[in-house]
């Protein structure tokens, strides 16, 4: 396994019995399928799908913030520590 994720952008979609998130080629790249166990989707279900869909953008923004914090001399800040931990979690480290 390479550890690389499906490239973004990702988009959330609401189906009749699930909420799913797709990659750039909506038909070929289902990133996540949230099966709703025969219930209607709630606002929370779709909010979860939106958060998952935002993951590639959030990772990219976190990496930019990390670079800016290091370049600005805030390398020992709590913010840098939290941003670095989030990036590591997203990358499976």
Word description of this protein:
The chain has 93 residues and is α+β, with helices and mostly antiparallel strands. It has 2 domains: 11-53, no CATH class; 56-90. 44% of the residues lie in helices and 16% in strands. The protein contains 3 helices and 3 strands; from the N terminus they run E-E-E-H-H-H. It has helices at residues 43-53, 55-71, 78-90, and strands at 11-14, 18-22, 30-35. A 3-stranded antiparallel beta sheet has the order 1-2-3, covered by helices on one side. Helix 2 (55-71) packs antiparallel against helix 3. The longest helix has 17 residues, at 55-71. The chain is elongated and about 50 Å long. The model has no long low-confidence stretch (mean pLDDT 82).
What's the topology here?
Blueprint: E1 11-14, E2 18-22, E3 30-35, H1 43-53, H2 55-71, H3 78-90
Antiparallel strand pairs: 1-2, 2-3
Helix pairs in contact: 2-3
Concise structural overview:
This protein is of the alpha+beta class. It has helices at residues 43-53, 55-71, 78-90, and strands spanning 11-14, 18-22, 30-35.
The total strand number stands at 3
Strand order of the largest sheet: 1-2-3
Fraction of residues in helix: 40-55%
Q: Please describe the biggest sheet, giving its number of strands, its sense, and whether it closes into a barrel.
A: 3 strands, antiparallel
The separation of the N and C termini measures 14 Å
What value does the Rg take, in angstroms? 16 Å
Mean pLDDT over all positions:
82
What's the number of helices?
A: 3
Strand content: 15-25%
Number of domains: 2
Low-confidence stretches: none
* Rough outline: elongated
Computed structural class: alpha+beta
List the secondary-structure elements in sequence, H or E: EEEHHH
């Amino acid at each position: 396994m390479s550890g690389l994720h499906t490239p973004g952008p990702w988009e959330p979609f609401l189906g009749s019995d699930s909420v799913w998130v797709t990659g750039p080629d909506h038909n070929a790249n289902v990133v996540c399928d949230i099966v709703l166990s025969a219930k209607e989707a709630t606002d929370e279900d779709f909010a979860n799908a939106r958060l998952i869909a935002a993951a590639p953008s959030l990772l990219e923004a976190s990496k930019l913030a990390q670079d800016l914090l290091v370049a600005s001399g805030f390398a020992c800040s709590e913010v840098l520590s939290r941003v670095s931990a989030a990036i590591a979690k997203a990358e499976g480290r």
